[in-house]
Amino acid sequence: MAKKVFVFFPDGVGLRNFAFTNFKTIGEQMGFDITYWNNTVFSIKDNLDFKELKIEDHTTHPLLPYYSRARKRIELNRSREKFNDEVYPTYKFPFNYKGVKNTFKSLFTKALIGRYNSEQGLLKLRQKINELERSTSKYKYCKAQLETHKPDLIFCTTQRATQSISALLAAQDLGIPTVAFVYSWDNVPKAMQVVETDYYCVWSDLMKEELLKYYPFVREDQVFVTGTPQFEPHYDEALKQTREEFFELYGLDTDKKYICYSGDDKTTSPLDQYYLEDLAHAVRSLNTKGYNLGIIYRKCPVDFTSRYDAVIKANKDIIKVLDPLWQQVGSQWNQVLPTPEDFNMLYNVCEHSEMVTNVCSSTVFDFVTHDKPCIYYNYEQPQLKKGIRDIGQNYKYVHFRSMPSDQAAVFCTDKKDLEGLVKQILDGKLSNVEEGKQWFQIVAGEKPCDASRAIWETIDSVLK
Fold first, then answer.
1. CATH topology of domain 4-60+136-227+448-463
2. How confident is the model at residue 69 (pLDDT cuts 50, 70, 90)?
3. What's the pTM value of the predicted model, to 2 decimals?
4. 287 dihedral zone (left: phi>0; alpha: psi -120 to 50; beta)
């Protein structure tokens, strides 16, 4: 009899990896009965015609946001002390004291931090969060669903969503095995391990080491290295369009060579529009020297600002906007969901661009799978002032320490050097592709094209 697996979406971030790739097809070929246990506003049944069980009760305990924020800050405090490293406080968002409500939230969270700020306190705090979530109507609702449908295993598509806590507790209290996928390459050091499950799937040996380092209550035999489905589409040559097809589809000039500018969210790069402007100036200058270049601007899918508009308008003759094919189904960042068509677009943007430039984005890995270099901007803009975050701190984060060398990306540390770096790459005299691929293997594992199968094999071994 086929084993029944619930693929659990506490929010929309896992859709790209686990609904729009071949993940379901591979699981079914291996004999699994798959139901998507869906906590999102996106209808998997209506849009993809997959078997779906909707979670209609989204209640969390009113105190959960306070306890969750306190947990994260305490974990970062403990990491700073344990590893004698000042990088961890830089992951914290500042407290907000604007208005009575925000002041109360901040003071209450600080009181919780004072009470639980120790290793033992942290364990008690996690237990308290579980106690709060077991008292909610959502816990009872999810437990009733599980008792009715009787899945053999729950696979949670991200470890970072507080919406998943009550549902996973319900499963565990019923004796149903739970497996969580660690969603992103930077999540573990940033204290984003919200859920506790029986097993974990991680991208690489590096991420496994991190999980065991930061969460000593996790045992080694609970962690499986599987890779991530995130990059699998780059190995699917069926997505490839010819240069002529792609350029015609998006109105690009076949006489030009294009550089991709991959935008960032406002938190990561608050002055991101000025780096796009710098690239436009470099391209204009190179075009006067015999090059024929354009820019493909692909924005961050969750950036709703108008901050790039003036730069794009002023350079509309060289900047072509190719917005990601994502669908906004709500007002929150995790309610902007990818579409399957975006895989095709991203594949061909990588394939038909000469390089990508951005601020510290993981698109470096998307592009090296297509043998394309990446320039990271790492200089301050003159518009930087007090209260605006300097992008330089991004490169000090723990996940950037995974670079095998500083040649794993081409770093532009001075605006004056940008044109020269672009020129060297175009002329074939500079590239980070070889070192970038080494970095990609460190971060994403040895077989990034086989992650979906590896996850199903892990699920199979857990069930056995």
1. Rossmann fold (3.40.50)
2. very high
3. 0.94
4. alpha
